[in-house]
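=== Structure Prediction Worksheet ===
Name of assembly: unnamed complex
Input type: mixed (protein and possibly other molecules)
Chain count: two
Listed entries:
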Amino acid sequence: MGKTLYDKLWEDHCVHTYENGYSLLYVDRHLVHEVTSPQAFDGLKIADRRLWRKESIMAVPDHNVPTLNRGGQINDPISKIQVDKLDENCKTHNLLKFDLQDERQGIVHVVGPEQGLVVPGMLVVCGDSHTSTHGAISCLAFGIGTSEVEHVLATQCILKQKSLNMNVKVLGDMNEYFYAKDLALLIISKIGTAGGTGYAIEYTGKAIEGLSMESRMTLCNMTIEAGATTGLIGVDKKTIEYIKDKPYSPKGDLFVNANKHWESLRSDDDCTYDKVFEIDVSKQDPMVTWGTSPEMASSVNDNIPDLNDIAFSDKVEDFRNALDYMGLKPKQKINSIYLDKIFIGSCTNSRIEDLRVVAGIVKGKKVSDKIKSAIIVPGSGLVKKEAENEGLDKIFIECGFEWRSPGCSMCLGMNDDQLDEYERCASTSNRNFEGRQGRLGRTHLVSPAMAAAAAIRGHFVDVRDEI
Amino acid sequence: MNKFKNVTSIIVNIPRKNIDTDIIIPKQYLKAVTREGFGNFLFDDWRYLEPGKLSDKKERKKNLDFVLNLDEYSNCEIMIVGDNFGCGSSREHAVWALIDFGIKVIISTSFADIFYSNCFKNGLLAIILDEKEIENIKANGKSYSINLEEQLIYNDNLKVKFEIDPRKKQALIEGLDDISETLLLKDKIKNFESKRLKEKPWLF
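=== Predicted Assembly ===
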């Protein structure tokens, strides 16, 4: 019987299997940021353990960094301590780290692939749930807690129980203005935020083959929002093309040899999955979330659900709580929802292709005067530089957007970029949880194109009406 | 990790589904560089009517409608929560906050994967039961005892047996540290690593 990509990756990293079904897996790449690592480094020190393999680590501050006035010090003294702590830990152990002033700094899940520090076949971990992003490059990648960060620092291994295999088969061709983000929200709205719990999800189908590498990262990134810690896409020509010539990717003979292995990183034709979910994406409209969980999403041209609809009978209470929090009413038209703020950024949607899409929509237009602030936060210093080389920053600034420095920013609002109470935001990030972007703030998740169109109109609109 | 001791306590119910880790512990508290002191901030946005800050120790107005603010639950050690508890971010601070508040056992129909794993790394017993069993527990009394060795939740009215992975059970009872155990296989890891370096040098 054939093997799935997940099976192959699992076997290739398995150091030891215990009798009770747990396995010790070898970690090739450990990505580290300032928020979930200080307690892990402390633990290592307290127990007087040595760090196993420093070359496997790349560290970068991203969650807690300001996106304005980056020349100077961090104003918030508590944030500064955390960023300084990362600095200190990296110096102590002599780790590769991209400082705030380095143009390679950015969101950890943007920087890793951009630098070629993540290549197919790796096992990638990070103390961040959106580590699923790297499955787009055919890596076994998942988020871990701080105790596990310490475990990886000390042993280069992670203790795991194998997940089941789920195949999400995406049929049909995606409309031009239906993006990977819309696809992710559509899938989550169908299978639910716990639909993937206990599974590794592999995405297949013609629509997936058609996605660019950056779009694949968006899709795999959002996999955790369906409850699966791992999202995967098999290697194809696009994967190899993407890896080639990245600063840290293998070169010369090493690349040629690696290539032979990489080509095997696809599920076998005769493999079987524990669960298959098929979805047809032809004729789908762009998506908008209207609730406080990513599964509460509809097409922009739909209405918010009718709580009397029998189809939602087991969710009435959840929907009512969510709509109360969001200040919305059942049956309300989604394109009648007005916004206060626009956030374009996050590890989901802050790469150069996202910014090009936004620029294409807003060029020569003005941000609506109903919008209090519209910020664009590129995923890394290199994305920022490329956007500026292409003149995108000028388009954004002329339109009325603020052009910021890279970081996680308003996706989780650990820095100053937050929603005030009851403010409503069209956000290209990944979570619309209560308080996520600021206490009592109201988040609607959308694609960069939909956020751009909403910025111009002041309310949600099908981006195809704003072209 | 401290050894798990059997618990007798009143049970607090927070039945909402899909409670995410942002709700359990909001972002502003993730700026801490230690594992302690998060209990005051557990369910922060639901517990307090005013926003809080990590550095700000002043008393805040409590939301008296929220169950954890009721006096009878101030020392509770067992919590029953809704389906898919702990979804979202991998922040272990969510588990540290529950433990610092005093919670020793958390019961649900399901937990998100990373949260579930984080619980056992910190000695918090997470029990999965089906909906019927949970309803039964709620209907048969306010206080229960939990015996991990026997895998039992019980009081005078009811006895419910729960399943738990034997490795997790042993780790809780003995307060085992994963890292020490993994390092017993140090040589095996080293051999695996050298072989990997030889066969797939592009991964290093």
